[in-house]
Amino acid sequence: MSTLSNATNIFWQDCQLGKPERQKLLNQKGCVVWITGLSGSGKSTLACSPSSELHSRGKLSYILDGDNLRHGLNKDLGFKPEDRTENIRRTGEVAKLFADAGLICVASLISPYRRDRDTCRAMLPDANFIEVYMNMPLSLCEARDPKGLYKLARAGKIKGFTGIDDPYEPPLNCEIEIKEDDGDCPTPKVMAGQVVTYLEEKGFLEC
Ligand SMILES: Nc1ncnc2c1ncn2[C@@H]1O[C@H](COP(=O)(O)OS(=O)(=O)O)[C@@H](OP(=O)(O)O)[C@H]1O
Ligand SMILES: Nc1ncnc2c1ncn2[C@@H]1O[C@H](COP(=O)(O)OP(=O)(O)O)[C@@H](O)[C@H]1O
Fold first, then answer.
1. pLDDT tens-digit readout, 85-100
2. Residue 145, number of CB atoms within 10 A of its CB
3. How many A from CA of 149 to the centre of ligand 2?
4. ipTM over 0.95
5. Pairing state of beta strands 31-36 and 61-65?
6. What is the pLDDT of residues 141-175, one digit of tens each?
7. Ligand nearest to the CA of 168
8. Angle, nearest 10°, between helix axes 114-123 and 81-100?
9. What does pTM read for this prediction?
């Protein structure tokens, strides 16, 4: 699927009221927290935890979850490489809009290809794209297998499953890495703390 615009004679419309005014209203800075990792690595769990924490502090966030988006906006897409690329591109564009609205947008998708994630990063001012890598071993994800999909993939009933017979390219320079500590996975609260602390230290929770 082409990412080039097919439309001609289109013009960008600006409005006097912009992102700075919205950020001031919300007393926060719009950004995208992009969580990437294998199925079962804890992306959705991590996405929900800081959102609750931020909410209780009066900060507005919104979660874009890959599974959920595939029920609507991306329901026409499968898991072929070009479909995954389009899935990430569309989600990146939506995340960019949420960030422009002044929200802390938490996107949680496998997003297995480095180039696609970098494309999303390039859509935003660099510091406003916070890539979080759920660096959990495949063995742990497979042992969790909450949806039974790894089992189906191992049995050859799902083809092209990430980590089994489809690639996952880990980030080379992410802002946050969540990994096991001495063989233990950090609790959702600890993982969320890592993200919220980062946002706080970088000044996203005030304007
Ligand atoms: N072939 C294959 N590979 C990987 N995942 C698969 C596949 N088929 C279905 N699923 C389910 O789809 C969820 C991943 O959707 P995403 O939109 O995040 O995927 S991607 O970013 O486009 O790769 C993923 O959800 P999570 O487990 O939450 O990651 C799976 O439940
Ligand atoms: N930090 C954690 N500690 C223990 N179990 C976890 C943790 N994070 C996620 N889980 C569990 O692992 C499974 C997969 O988590 P999920 O967030 O659905 O992953 P993903 O969105 O990457 O597929 C779920 O059953 C979830 O409860």
1. 999 999 999 999 999 9
2. 15
3. 14
4. yes
5. unpaired
6. 999 999 999 999 999 999 999 999 999 999 999 99
7. 1
8. 20
9. 0.97
Amino acid occupying residue 46: L
Residues contacting ligand 2 via CB (< 6 Å) = 37, 39-45, 144, 146, 185-188, 191
Q: Find out whether the beta carbon of 28 lies less than 6 Å from any atom of ligand 1.
A: no
State the ligand closest to the CA atom of 144: 2
Mind listing the domains of the chain with CATH numbers? 19-201 (3.40.50.300)
Cβ pair 174, 132 in contact under 8 A:
yes
Query: Please, is 59 exposed, middle or buried when counting C-beta atoms within 10 Å of its C-beta (0-12, 13-18, 19+)?
Result: buried
Residue nearest to atom 16 of ligand 1 (CA): 66
- Say what the pLDDT of residue 5 is: 77
In testing the pocket of ligand 1, which one of 87, 91, 110, 113 has its CB within 8 Å of the most ligand atoms?
A: 110
Q: Is 67 helix (H, G, I), strand (E, B) or coil?
A: helix
Which residues does the annotation mark as catalytic?
111
The overall average pLDDT reported for the chain is 95
Q: Which of 167, 164, 112, 159 is nearest to 134 (CA)?
A: 112
